[in-house]
Amino acid sequence: MIDRETISRIRDSIDIVEVVKSYVHDLKPAGKDFKALCPFHSEKTPSFYVSPSKNIFHCFGCKAGGDVFKFVMQIENISYPQAVKKLASKVGIEIQETDEEVSTDRKKILEILRNVSDFYNRYLLNSQEALSARNYLNERGVNQSIIEKFHLGYAPGGNKIFEEGKKKYSVELLFKTGLLSISEKDKKPYDFLRNRIVFPIYDIMGNVIAFGGRTLEKDIQPPYINTPDTSVYSKSRSLYGLFQGKNTIAKIKKVIVLEGYIDVLICHQYGFENAVAPLGTAITSEQIRTLSRSAEEIIFVFDSDESGRNAALRAGEMCLEEGIHSSICSLPEGIDPDEYILRYGKEKFNSLISSGVNPVEFKTEILSFRIDLAKPENKSKFVKEMINTLIKIKDSVFRTEMVKYISEKIKIEESIILSEMRRATSRNIKMQKLNESLLDGLNISIKSIEEEIICLCLHHPNLIKYIQQELFTDERCIFVYPFLVKMVEENLPLVKILDFLDESLSSWFTQLAFEEREYESPEESLDILLRDLNLQRQEIRRRQLEKEVIPMWEGKIPQDIRKIEEYQELTKLLKGS
Prior knowledge:
The chain is built from 25 helices and 15 strands.
C-alpha cells in the first residue's frame, strides 16, 4: 500500500494537462481550463474538461471525473496502485512495493478481517457488555438465525483489536485493514469501530473485506460508519447482502435494493433473500452493473422523504443509461422498509415491491406533485424536465412507450415531445444557465438547492462559516461538508478531498468544482438560497399536513388542533412569501 504523503507528492509534481494531452491530442485551452472530446465515450461536442488550477478533470457527458491518477486508471484500464506507480516513474519518485508484497498483504489482511469478524460475533453473543446491542437488535426485530447468517458482531470499548493485533502483525498492516484510526487528541491509534454493533461486509466469494458500525449512543454522530476503502475493499463496488443473496438473485433474476443494513436483514428474515444495500452512499453505476450480471430487474425501495425520492430517481436514471430494467417503490411517509415488513407482514411487502413503477413514471409522479399541470405554462416546464430523463433511455421501444405515456398524461401530442427530444439531443441537452459560462451547451444542472449551496461554498469557502451540517438532508452534501470546513481551517486542497470520496461522490463533486459562476454578491446569493430552501421545506410540510387536515375538516378522521393550526400558519406564511 502506498502512503498518502507519497501520493500527494506525486500528484503535486505532475502537470495534469500534460498527462491528459499525451492521450487526448485535441485538448485545447478554454479560458482558464482545457477542453476536448471525451476519450471515455463517443460524442460530437466537447464535454471533457481539465482544470490545471484545481488539478482535476470531468466529463459532463459520461460523468467520468477525478484527479490525474483516476484519469490514467480509466484511460489505460489499470488499477489505482499501477496508475500511481506509472506517474511516480515520470517524476522520479521511487515507490518501494512489489506485486509479491501486495499479494501477501492481501492474504494477511483477509485473515485479520476474518478473525476480527469472529471475535466481534463471539463478543455480541456472549459478552455482558454487548447486552444493550442484543436488546437493540431484538427491538429492531432481528432474530438469532439472521445474526448467525450475517455474522453480526459487537465491537467493545477500548482498543482490543489494536492491542491484540500488534502482538502478531505489524501496526502498518493493521492500518491497512481499515480497523484502526488515529486519535485527533493524542495522535495514537485506536479501534475505529469501538462501542458499535458491527455488520461484516463480504465480497462475492465470501471473504470479509470491511465492516459497518452502528452506535447505540444517541449523542454520537453519525450513527452509522463504515471502515474506509482498502486494497481489498471498494465502497463504490461492494454491496451489503450480495454474498448472502447471490444464489437467490441468480435464480429469480430480480434484486431488491434498499438503503440500510437493518432493512436488508429484515428482508432476508422474511424470505426476501434477494435484498441488498449500498454502503452508506448513493448507489453507483459500478454497483448497478454488478447487479445486472445476475439480475434482469432492479427494484429500488428507498425512504419516502425527499432525499430518498431523489436517490431513487438518480438510481433509476442510471439504470436507464445502462439499459437495465428497474422499478421504484413508494413507501408510506415516515416508515422504513424494515418497519413496513414488521408492521404489515410479508404479503403486504410483496405487494409493495410488485407495485413499483419505472423511473419515467416515478419522475412523472414527483413532478405532478410539484408542478401544477392545470396551468398551460407549466406543461412546458414539465416536458423539459422529463426530456432530461427520456433521452437517457437506451431501449428504443421502451423510449417510444414512455413518450406515449407522457403524451397521454399531460394531453400533449407525441410529435411535440419527440421534436423537443431531438432538439435537446442535437445540442447535447443544452440547458439555460443563470450566467453565461464556458460550459454552456453541456448537460450541467445542479439538481437541488442544497447542491447549489455546496457549490457556492466550494467556490467561496469563506461562506462555509455561515452553514451547519444539520442544514442538509442530501447524504452527499452531508458527507462533503466536513471537507469544505477543512478547506478553510486546514487549507486542504480541493483535489485532496477526492482521496476520501468513492467513485459516485467523486464524479458529483468534480462536476460541482467545474460549475463556477459569477455572482455580484456571493453572500446575498447564499441568503437567497437559504431562504428558498426554508420555503421549499415549509411548502413540503404544508402539503403533508394538507393531506391530513382536509379529512379532519370533512369529518372523516378526528381533528388534531395542533396540526390544523400549523397548517393554517404555514398556508398564511407561504402566501405572503
